[in-house]
Amino acid sequence: MSKVKAFTPVFDAVTKETDMLASLVFGYIWRKERLDDGWCDTAIATMANDLGVSAATIKRRIDMLESAEPPWIEDLDPSLRNAPHRRRTIRHIEIVPMAAEVGHRELPVGQSELPEVVHRDTRRYLIKDNMRKRRDPLLDHPAIVGYKSIVHLHVPVAWRQEVAATIGEKEADVTRWLELVRGWVGRGWNKQNVAGMLEAFRKGATIQTQQVAFRGRAE
What we know:
10 helices; 219 residues; two-stranded antiparallel sheet; Arc Repressor Mutant, subunit A
């Protein structure tokens, strides 16, 4: 019988809100952050190789986990380029041994409280998602609502405050922001490069002036 030294968990709570592959990516980050410094800084290509899927699949699942409401993971280096990003889980997952759920009872000597099948593989766990789902009020900011309507993703958590502060709520500014986002996406640039979009906005870029091409454009 082979011995299992480490394994990547798949959490039911994550799977129900996303899909199996996203749950696997979440489990990978969850495991790595406990082995390292409180975050996972594994390169996407390495993660893809470890999990046996493509890098594009990993990127899509990371997007899914980051744009969930509330998000399952957080990118600690959203503006970093050409280097692995540090990511960590931000929704609390409590792992409770199955025996603690079913309670203690008198058993014959030598008999385990857990089903025998548990010992043929690794321990089975019941997963509790104890995160209280409190909606971020910034999600109702017109600049952020408009971004989601165009990009079909939430503004990442790390950038919401800056988007709201930079764009403000004046109708003319929000309109110029949304025109810029629409033009950015239409040119095929990285739709999640919020830092680049904000830089363009501060420089006064609009679709009409075609001033969006600058060094912050997507790779």
